[in-house]
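Propose amino acids for all 674 sites.
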């Protein structure tokens, strides 16, 4: 370590001749304050890298190791000042390294805090952006209450509304003011309509009161007429003439031979035709008068024979048993024999279609059977327009398979004879036929008709209901046949007339009639049980195909006899065509909740929203075809993972069961939920 630095006081060289040299004072080093020293150390620590400190530390430690090695070997005693200097330098390197490390850690923590603050700010900004986006979407999707109001066209508005309301100088250039003016005019019109409605309802109530009074007077007249007819019957029988309502001498003679039930119906039908001025309805009495006279004499003789047999007390039990057995064998042949005189009623319907009714009275069964035939230009489609089931189920629970008279039903049961044994020849004993003859109630399982129910007024009401039901059934069947013909010829054109997308990927490839066995074998057990409970008359198979999703859909349709009062039942089966590795897969309501939801929508939901009952079948098929596009778009199981959608949707699914948006909105051309 070098000594202090000396300075010369003079600038000139020393004078050698001088006898004595002046003594120089040592220069004192500048004193450094601790704060300045630490500041310098900090600067050195920040400016020196760890690699340089490591290099310096290794150099000093190597020098110290060499000195110690020499000391251990005893070759040389180390200089204490150099050793201390090495140690001091090593400690200085260590201190600088620790300080630099602390500074780096502090800087790292500071940077981390800045990063976390920036990240938190970023998250807050993202949340704020999402919130703003939701608010923007809500604003874009906002629907005012007046958007669903159908306003009158602008031309009509300016033509009909007064200028004080329309204000054309303002509203034609301001869409908002124009909308307000149209709404104001709409409110004014609706108030006027309400006033008109109130006035018309008042007039209607007055007319109803007047009609009720006239009906009461008519009812009193009808009771008096009935009393007169009852009083005139003995005179007519004594004179051997028929009812005055007969249109000819032949009809009068046949009328006197009619059974009581058919004579009641004849009188009521003639009165109905005259009162209602129904020229399309004709009532004619047909039959063999001579055979009817022989039957009357035979019945009279049998009654007298029965009275004599009841008075005879000498017959034994064995003989009586033989007579009963012979009588049962005879009854099997005669129990289903009709009365020789019957009624023929022709009821004209729309499109020149006529329903010819033949009503036969079976005396042994005490019921009236009806056989019918359809004539005219009735469109046909396979067996849909067949006469065998056109009037089946005309009223609830009335299929004509059982005898409505308890005595007649007991006879058939004892003789082990069914209604089908004579239905082809004389028709079926429908309950509504017994109701119009006054022998039974129109309600199935009801009590026997009372005297009030068999009065002329009540029977006229029942006859009116029956004729109206027959005409409605024929009209509905004609419309159904036309729908079926359209579905067979151009199915997609028939379906596109309803609220469905203009472009559908699913198309109808075939529509054909099938038998009941095929239908029952193709549907699920639950659907089979429902079909058996509802009862069907016709069965069809509609085949759909979606080539984009490789789907083949079969719709098994059950049409009831009383369509459209009872809606069709459609079972859906979806077949997914597999590739070379996997074969085709079939899904139905039993193994797929998607197919079950589709069946529910087609059979229940869309039917509840329909207003035109005559097009239920076509509307159901239109909904089925368009909703098959929905499952092909949104269900990955059916679309091969294809994410490209063919239609617009509000949401792809909803709820725990992933309900699909089956409701189509024509205004937005999108599928949504209720």
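Proposal:
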């Amino acid at each position: 370590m070098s000594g202090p630095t000396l300075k010369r006081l003079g600038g000139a060289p020393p004078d050698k001749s001088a006898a004595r040299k002046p003594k120089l004072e040592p220069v004192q080093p500048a004193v450094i304050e601790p704060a300045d020293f630490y500041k310098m150390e900090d600067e050195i620590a920040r400016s020196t890298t760890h690699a340089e400190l490591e290099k310096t530390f290794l150099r000093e430690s190597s020098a110290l190791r060499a000195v110690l090695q020499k000391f251990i070997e005893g070759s040389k005693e180390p200089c204490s000042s150099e050793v201390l200097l090495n140690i001091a330098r090593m400690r200085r390197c260590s201190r600088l390294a620790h300080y630099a490390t602390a500074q780096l850690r502090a800087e790292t923590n500071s940077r981390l805090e800045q990063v976390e603050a920036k990240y938190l700010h970023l998250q807050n900004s993202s949340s704020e952006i999402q919130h703003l986006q939701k608010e923007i979407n809500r604003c874009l999707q906002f629907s005012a209450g007046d958007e669903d109001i159908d306003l009158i066209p602008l031309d009509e508005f300016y033509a009909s509304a007064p200028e004080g309301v329309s204000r054309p100088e303002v509203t034609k250039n301001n869409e908002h003011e124009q909308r307000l003016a149209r709404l104001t005019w709409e409110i004014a019109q609706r108030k006027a309509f309400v006033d008109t409605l109130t006035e018309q309802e008042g007039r209607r109530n007055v007319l109803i009161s007047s009609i009720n009074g006239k009906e009461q007077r008519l009812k009193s007249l009808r009771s008096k007429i009935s009393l007169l007819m009852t009083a005139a019957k003995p005179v007519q029988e004594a004179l051997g003439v028929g009812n005055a309502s007969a249109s000819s001498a032949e009809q009068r003679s046949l009328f006197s031979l009619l059974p009581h039930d058919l004579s009641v119906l004849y009188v009521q039908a003639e009165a109905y035709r005259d009162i209602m001025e129904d020229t399309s309805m004709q009532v004619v009495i047909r039959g063999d008068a001579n055979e009817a006279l022989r039957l009357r004499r035979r019945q009279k003789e049998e009654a007298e024979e029965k009275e004599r047999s009841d008075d005879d007390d000498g017959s034994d039990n064995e003989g009586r048993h033989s007579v009963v057995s012979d009588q049962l064998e005879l009854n099997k042949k005669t129990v289903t024999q009709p009365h020789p005189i019957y009624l023929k009623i022709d009821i004209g319907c729309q499109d020149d279609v006529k329903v010819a009714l033949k009503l036969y009275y079976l005396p042994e069964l005490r019921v009236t059977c009806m056989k019918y035939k359809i004539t005219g230009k009735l469109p046909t489609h396979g067996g849909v327009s067949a006469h065998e089931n056109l009037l089946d189920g005309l009223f609830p629970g009335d299929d004509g398979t059982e005898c409505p008279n308890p005595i007649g039903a007991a006879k058939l049961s004892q003789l082990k004879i069914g209604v089908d044994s004579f239905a082809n020849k004389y028709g079926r004993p429908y309950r509504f036929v017994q109701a119009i003859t006054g022998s039974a109630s129109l309600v199935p399982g009801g009590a026997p008709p009372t005297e009030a129910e068999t009065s002329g007024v009540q029977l006229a009401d029942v006859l009116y209901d029956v004729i109206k039901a027959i005409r409605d059934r024929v009209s509905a069947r004609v419309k159904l046949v036309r729908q079926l013909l359209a579905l067979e010829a151009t199915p997609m054109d028939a379906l596109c007339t309803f609220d469905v997308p203009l472009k559908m990927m699913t198309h109808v490839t075939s529509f054909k009639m099938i038998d009941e066995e095929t239908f029952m074998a193709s549907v699920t057990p639950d659907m089979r049980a429902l079909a058996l409970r509802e009862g069907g008359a016709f069965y069809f198979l509609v085949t759909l195909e979606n080539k984009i999703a490789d789907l083949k859909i079969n719709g098994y349709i059950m049409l009831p006899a009383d369509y459209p009062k009872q809606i069709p039942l459609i079972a859906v089966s979806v077949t997914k065509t597999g590739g070379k590795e996997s074969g085709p897969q079939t899904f139905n309501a039993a193994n797929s909740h998607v197919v079950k939801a589709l069946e529910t929508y087609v059979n229940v939901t869309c039917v509840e929203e329909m207003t035109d009952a005559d097009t239920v079948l076509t509307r159901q098929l239109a909904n089925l075809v368009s909703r098959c596009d929905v499952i092909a778009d949104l269900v990955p199981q059916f679309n091969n993972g294809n994410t490209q959608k063919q239609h617009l949707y509000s949401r792809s699914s909803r709820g725990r069961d992933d309900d699909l948006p089956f409701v189509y909105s024509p205004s937005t051309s999108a599928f949504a939920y209720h």
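The chain has four domains: 42-120, 165-215, 258-308+328-479, 490-672. The longest strand covers residues 354-362.
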